Each structure stands twice: as C-alpha cells, then as structure tokens.
Amino acid sequence: MKVSNPLWKERLEGKMPEALARELDIFEAEISLKKMGKLEDRLFAETRLRRGAYGQRYDNGERHDGTKVQQMAYARRELTKGPNTLWDAPGMQRIKIPGGGLHAAQLETLADLAEEYSDGIAHITTRQDVQLHYVHIEDTPSVMRRLAAVNITTREACGNSVRNVTACPYAGVCEDEAFDVTPYSRALSKFLLGHPDTQEFGRKFKPSFSGCSQHACALANLHDLGLVAATRVENGEEKRGFAVYVGGGLGAVPYQAKLFDPFVPPEELLPLAQAISRVFARLGEKKNRSRARLKFLVQDLGIEKFRELVLEERKILEPDSRWTEYIREAEQQFTEEPLKPAGKLEPQTGSENFQRWLKTNIRPQRQKGYVVATVTLPIGDITARQLRALADVVRRFTKETVRTTVEQNFAIRWVSKSDLPELHQALDAVGLGAPGAGSIVDVVACPGTDTCKLGISSSRGLAGELRNRLIEKSYQLDEAVKDLHIKISGCFNSCGQHHVADLGFYGVSRKMSGYAVPHFQVVLGGEWAHNAGSYGLPVVAVPSKNIPEVVNRLTDRYVAGRQNGESFKDFIKRIGKAEVKKLLEDLTRPPEDQRDRSFFRDWGDPREYTLGDMGVGECAGEVISSTDFELAAAERLLFESQVAFENAEIERAGKAAYQSMLRAARALVRAELPLVSDDPDQIVSEFRKRFYDTQRFFDTYAGGKFAQYLFAAHEKASMAYTADSVRLLIDEAGLFIEASHNFSSRAEVPAAV
Amino acid sequence: MELQHVNVKLLLKNGDEELDLEPLVPVFHSWIQSQGWDELLLDVADYRHVFAGPGVILIGHEANYSVDNTGNRPGVRYNRKAALEGSNQDRLRQATVAALRACRRFESDPRLNSKFLFNGHEIEISINDRLLAPNNPETREAIQPDLAALLQELFAGGEYSLSYENSPRNLFSVSVKTSDTFTIEELLQNISS
After folding, report:
1. Nearest CB neighbour to B132, from listed A3, A63, A88
2. For residue B28, what is the nearest residue in chain A, using CA coordinates?
3. Tell me, what's the ipTM?
4. Which of B33, B50, B57 is facing A378, going by the closest CB pair?
5. Nearest to A575 by CA among A551, A552, A554, A548
6. Which of A177, A194, A263, B8 could form a disulfide with A241 if both were Cys (CB 3.0 to 4.6 A apart)?
C-alpha cells in the first residue's frame, strides 16, 4: 500500500544484517509470487506466519455490522493471502523482542512503524512481543527491513516455530535471583532461530527464562521450555545452571510444566534444547493441531519416557561449536551499566501522585542506589509519540535500554534513586507516569474481539471498563485488594493468561431469552507468583455487563472474610466454589427489563452481539428449549465435579466431569433424536455420527477438538482417575460444554421445546 | 518529490477542554453499516484509554478517519493510506476535501450533538511517509508551491501563517492558521469552485 515500499530496500542496503536482508528479499519475492497466483494458499500462510505476519479479525472479508453480515467490498476479493483470508484485509504484525530488551533507537523505529503502517499504536503482549495492527501484507517487507536495520527480526514470531524467548525483565538487577539469565536467553534465542531442528514442529514452542523460582516475572511453569536459574556448589565452587521444566502451557487446557532436570549447566543448555526440539519435531502430533503442543507429548509419554528419549537424542547429536561459543559470547558481550552514579531519594519528596507512583512502580535493585521503574501502559498500548518520549527518557536516565514485561508494561532499569523525581516528571508529561503497576488496576488483556479472529468476547473492552472503575476508587480500595491480579482473555485460548490471575476471565457466549449474550467465565484460584505456580478453575459464566459487579462482590467478600492475611487464592479455596457460585448466582441471569439492550452488547461495542442468532425470534423470550435445560444440567454436573475436585474426591470429580460431557452431548443429540437413551455408548455414537463425522460441530478454528475431548473421556471412562487427569478432564468438559452452547446458539439444533 | 499518504487534521473548537469521544463509537459503527462513503470502511479502533493518542479511529481500506488527540489537540483527521494517481497538488487537495467532508458529517450528525465542530482557523497537514517526505528543509521547499496553491484556493486568498514541525524524528508536518475564521461549508465551497 505504501508508495515508498520499493525504495526501502535500497535505502537500507548495508544497514541490515546480511543474512536477514537476504531472507527479506526472499519473503518479498514470495509475496510477489502469491500475487501472481504461483504459491498455494496454505504454503503462503505458513510462510508469512513465520515472518510474524498474522491474520486479523474480519480478514475473511465478512463482518457483522450489528444487523447483518456484511461482505466487505474489497476490489480484489479473489486475491488471498491464505485459506479464506483476503489479500487486502489488514493483518497484525508481531515483532519478537527476545527477553523484552529494547534500546532507544529501536523504540524510535517502532514508533515510526506504528505511525506509518499501523494505527499509531504499538501493543505490548503478554509474551514481551510488540504487535502492530491493521498492517497491509504488501507493507510487511518494508516494516521488516526497517526493523532489521535496528537488529530486530520478526522471523518465527508466529507459525509452528520457536516463538519469542522471554525472560525476567528484572534479570541482572533483581534482589533475589540466582544470577542474571539475560545472556543465556540471548544465546538460546540466537541458537534456535531458524535452526533446522526447529522447522518441523506441529505447533509453536515457547521458551522462557526466570532468575528465581519464587516470583512470577517469567512464568516458567506455563512454557513449553521453562528455565529457572539455580546454583550449586561443586568442589567448593559455586556453579551456575538451570532447573529445566518442559511441557507447560495455557491454551484451552492448561498444563503445568514438569521438571525435566533440576540442574543443567550452561554449556548443556543449547544441546539439550536442540535434543528436546528434535524429539518434539519427530514425535509431536502433526495432523491434529489441538494436540500438537509439547505439553500433550509430555503428557502422553510421561515425563520419564520423554526424558529418556531426549537424553538418547542428546547422545547422538553431532557436536556443535555454537553450543559453547554462543554462551561464552553472550556472557562476555552482555554488560549493563548505569549512566548515572548511585543516588538517594529523600523520603516524602514530591507530590502525592509521585508518592503513589513510588509505592507501586518502583522496585529496588540489588545494586544499591538504583531502582527499576515500571511504566504502566493501559492494556499494553503505547502511542508513537510516547515511544519516542520513552526513547528520550531512557537516553537521559540510563544507558538507553528498557525491557517489556509480561504484564504489558515497560521496565526502566538502572535508574539512580536521586533521578526519580525528574524521571517521573518526564514520564508524566507524556502520560506514562501513572501509578498502579502490577496492582489490581493494571489489568492485563489480550486483543480479544477488537482484532483477534478467535475472540468471543471483548477482553479489551472489559479490561478498559474495569480499569476505569478501579482507578476511580483506587484510593478507597483495601490494601488486601490492591495487589490482586486481573487477567482477561477474549476466548479459551488464554492469551490474556487468565489461568494465573487471582481474578481471571475468558470470553464465552450464551443464549439468553433467544439472544446470544457475551459472557465471561470467571476463573478463580490461579497463582501468579512462583512462576505461575497453579492454575485457576472456571466457576461460573456471567454476562459481560455483570463482570464489574463480580469483581466488586468477590473483592468485598475477600476484604470482609479474609483470615490471618490469607491470600485470595487461599481464601477462595477455603470458602469453596459452591459458596462463590452462590455469591454470583443472580448475576448469571438476564435483567428482567430487557428493553435496555445494552445488556446484549459487549463492552465498547454498540453492535448487538451476533444478531444472526435472532432467528430464534424476539417472541421466544420466555421459551426455554429442552436443549438449554439439558446444557444447564451439564453445567451443574461440571460444577459438582469442580467442588468434588476441590474436596479431593478425585474419583467422584472425574465421573461427574465425564457425565457432564455426556449430558451436553445428549442435549444436542436429543434435539434430533428425541428418543435417545441414557446409554453412554449410544449418546457418543449418535453424537459422532450426527455432529462429528458431518463436521457440523466443528469450530471454525479449533476444528473437531472439543468433540475429541468427549470421545477421549468416553474411552477412558472405565479407567481409574488421577488428580492430574481429572484436572484436565474438568477443563476439557468445560470447553466441550461451551462448544455445545455455541453449536446450539448457531441454531443448528432444532429447538426441541 | 512524490507526496503520498497525505494527512489532514482539522482542529476542533474547545480543544483545550476534555472531549468525550465515546459518542463517536456507535456513530462510526453506523457509518460502516451504511457504507455510504466513497471509500470502503472496515472497523472501529477505540484508543480513548491512551494519553494524547489517536482517539477513536474509523478504519478504512483507502484511508482512516478519526477524532485524533495527538499532542492533546483534538481534531478530525483524514489519514490517506492508499496511493493516489495525479499530481502532488491533486493529492493534497483530495485529502483536504476528504477531511472537510468528514468534518461536515461530524458537525451535522445529530447523535454527536454539535460536540465536534471545526474551530474555523487551524489545519494541520502532514505526510505519513518518512522516506517520501523526510522532515527536512528540502521537503519544505519542495512542497511549498503546491501547498501555497492549495491554501490560496482554500482560504480564497485570505491570510494565513505556517508553522512547521521542527523535530526531524517527527513526520513532515505543517500547521496552518488563518486570521479569518471559516466554516466547513465555506472551505468546501472555496476548494470546489
């Protein structure tokens, strides 16, 4: 789209790393070939994904405008950039930022790109990446060349590849880390980028480095490969190493990573990662995307067998000098120094606003006289002008560096304490000096229905609303509530990391009074600390517009009922899910007066939510179909399962979760075959024949994944349940029931009344 | 020098007051619904939560429209994305007319309650492409004749002053201030006569 596109290559000649420049020439040629019809859709889609050029909502050329699905009248509708993806539809460009590390010139380039190719905003993600939205595919080579000129690659930012290697943003300055993981994260990132052994994965692979086990900063437990710094003394000498965890992941069904090895020395890090990659590439699922992440392979094989296979693979690897070279280079080359001498801050200096900022946004460094200052971004968004101002700030107060965080903020390290008043003033002048970092007002959200193709509910709309309300009353909030984490995903795929929040929400839809209504599942009991120490479980689905009241009630109840300083997670565990559900029960119902249509719309979106579902009819308000009744019964069974699980009644929980799936399946089957029996074999067989084999139950993006959960649960129904297997079964049952609701909402099931 | 991707921003009245952009969201959605514009309208991006940011944007295929709050100076912005044939003057003119027409819609839409009114005397013109139009004296010199011709026509020979963005990091941008005040209709009439 940009007229200057052909000129950037020449302008940046010699300024880009040679190999990267060549790769970008090839990518540009592939774009031309695709335009000429000489590249197949799927192949081109994976090609661009591996360059970080992702799809965006409505890129199939259709958009529900509030009354009908509108065909977007692009002039070149026949031209596509992937299956069912129109060429001219804007897309998202993801930019990998290894370890979240950026310097001033890179911030300025990101600012220029946001302004010239996107909508003036750069978005920081929960994996320390930067995303630009509304980017035209033909502009992407210029975007990538300009990034390459400041040493940033978008290679393998999406697609079935090694994604951004994340790292604790406080590495090197944290008071209680084992050691600085930065050089090792850089070495691993460099080694795995484009490595031949990482090109045949069935799905993505996410590594993460943490400097300690107790904090949350790098969330090692929810990664495919989580590396936690550790030291041990050998022959009187302290040695560095990493506790290696594998097979963690959020997504629809979250898995905690398993300990692979408690101590791997740095020289073994790269070959071990290579061996893991080879095993994943060789044995990982390829056809069924929904079971293709490493977590499923580790689960299926068991950690012992997986370890055995990896160690066998390690033995037969051809020695590679880069294993030690990259580590040595990174250790020697990476140094970070302060710009200014260490300083002191007089207590009670500055305004009330400054004092509040000091309280929440400043973190001491282990280097005396220095601190880390967090720049809080609302829902991860920053303008082009703010990026330039941030570049000025880091030039003025540090040696030009800054890091992105998994909480969608920036961390400015090595700030001399005596500079804090001036630093805050400089940030505040451009709207970057807000307090509240890491607190309840610092709500994390994925893009959701704003721009993501998979979004079900408006995670950003809800996040914005909660943020505004919480900021308004932040001064009155009880101390116990201030440090809670709220994380929101627009769907079950967990990009907002809702599983590890105190208060997590993910988007679902429900039919109420004949209308589809945006909802969020309330997920409680997750743990952010200890590298995402435990995952929360869904409690109940509540209409979007009632979620602020959910937050009010839960936080009020916590403040009133908290015992001996217990954490929110422990509080929820103590009072139990049944009690929580009772507390929220009335919020799950539609308002009695339905003339106010705002209840049927999502936050920040005035369109009536999927009006296509109105086929059921406005008069159907009080008529509840038996399908709806049965789906509600399935949800009750699932809830019983959760309560049993909470009480460590594993067998009972497993059976109830399985029964809940059968009940939901029966609900759909019964609408077509009223005399279907209660026999599980008949239900599953009829379900398979009617909804799976015909692909009617398939989700646009997840395919038959949810139905497969039912089949797997049915197959394993006679086996003994374990705590781990029930934990997963509960999540899978929840997703199956959600999918059944969605299917029913699509009016594919005759309304059996 | 080829000027493409011209941006025109018409500054709003009462720009120093906090402007509630919320009413724009349903209006933009309804404009997408009706598709009654010359250009293809796609989506709405709401950035009210960022400080001095792009505000609320009506994302289009050929161009974006917004009430933009960059620099804490709210204005109706037309941001041309697609390339245009013709001369530099044609392109400056196209963006200016598109911005004026958009502003007329803002002013006349009853749902917006006359909250988004042109202040009558301030316009910003910028080129959203650093390679085609770097912010330097050469660009300033190159654009000058076409800019002067456009402004002569737009203000019907009335007086105006120019003030250029100085930082080479920022886009080439010029603020135009007139001593007289104009309505949108007058400016549209001037430029199309």
Report:
1. A3
2. A606
3. 0.98
4. B50
5. A554
6. A263
Determine the residue among B27, B49, B139 to mutate to test chain A binding: the one whose Cβ has the most chain A Cβ atoms within 10 Å: B49
- For A:403-462, CB contacts with B below 8 A are 430-432, 450
Q: Which residues pair with A226 in a beta bridge?
A: A208, A245
Judge: A65–B33 Cβ closer than 8 Å, yes or no.
Answer: yes
CA–CA gap between residue A388 and residue B130 (Å, rounded): 15
**How many angstroms away from the CA of A12 is the closest CA of chain B?**
11
Report chain A residues whose CB lies below 8 A from the CB of B4.
2-4
Separation of alpha carbons A701 and A692, rounded Å:
15
d(CA B178, CA B157): 11
Asked if A446 and A462 count as a contact pair (C-beta separation under 8 A), the reply is no
> From CA B97, how far away is CA B92, in angstroms rounded?
9
Cβ atoms within 10 Å, residue A746? 16
Average pLDDT over residues A93-122: 98
pLDDT 10s digits, A443-459:
999 999 999 988 889 99
C-beta atoms of B29 and A450 within 8 A? no
Residue A518 pairs in a beta bridge with A509
Tell which phi-psi region holds residue A201, choosing left (phi > 0), alpha (psi between -120 and 50) or beta: beta
Assign A525 a pLDDT band (cuts: 50, 70, 90).
Answer: confident
Residues of B in contact with A381 (CB under 8 A): 47, 49-50, 53
Is residue A515 within 8 A of residue A614, CB to CB? The reply is: yes
CA atoms lying within 13 Å on the CB side of residue A156: 25
Using an 8 Å Cβ cutoff, are A134 and A119 in contact? yes
Measured N-to-C along each axis, helices A577-584 and A568-575 cross at an angle, to the nearest 10 degrees, of 90
Name the closest residue on chain A to residue B127, using Cα atoms.
A116
DSSP A101: E
- List all residues 6 or more positions away from A356 whose beta carbon is below 8 Å from its beta carbon: A435
Residue pair A30/A162 in contact (Cβ under 8 Å)? The answer is no
How would you write the pLDDT of chain B (193 residues) with one tens digit per residue? 999 999 999 999 987 778 899 999 999 999 999 988 899 999 999 999 999 999 999 999 999 999 999 999 999 999 999 999 999 999 999 999 999 999 999 999 999 999 999 999 999 999 999 999 999 999 999 999 999 999 999 999 999 999 999 999 999 999 999 999 999 999 999 998 6
Query: Distance, in angstroms, between B53 CA and closest chain A CA?
Result: 6
| Beta pairing partners, B172 | B127
User: At A300, phi and psi to the nearest 5?
Assistant: -70, -40
Site from A63, A68, A133, A134 to mutate, B interface, most B CB atoms within 10 angstroms: A134
CA–CA distances in Å: residue A687 to residues A395, A682, A715, A740, A745? 62, 8, 14, 11, 17
Q: Is B25 in Cβ contact with A606 (below 8 Å)?
A: yes
Q: Which residue of A has its CA nearest to B48?
A: A464
How far apart (Å, rounded) are the C-alpha atoms in residues A550 and A441?
15
Residue A213 vs residue A363, higher pLDDT: A363
Burial-class residue B7 by CB neighbours within 10 Å (0-12, 13-18, 19+): buried
Q: Please give the Cα distance from A119 to A722 (Å, whole number).
A: 49
pTM (two decimals) = 0.90
Structure tokens at A640: 């019983």
Maximum Cα–Cα distance across chain A: 81
A88 touches chain B (CB under 8 A): yes
Contact A3 B5 (CB under 8 A): yes
pLDDT (0 to 100) of residue A610: 65
Strand partners, A238: A233
> Token pair of A408, please?
């969608």
Query: Residue A64 pairs with which residues in a beta bridge?
Result: A69
How far is the alpha carbon of A227 from chain B, nearest alpha carbon, in Å? 35
pLDDT of residue A16: 98
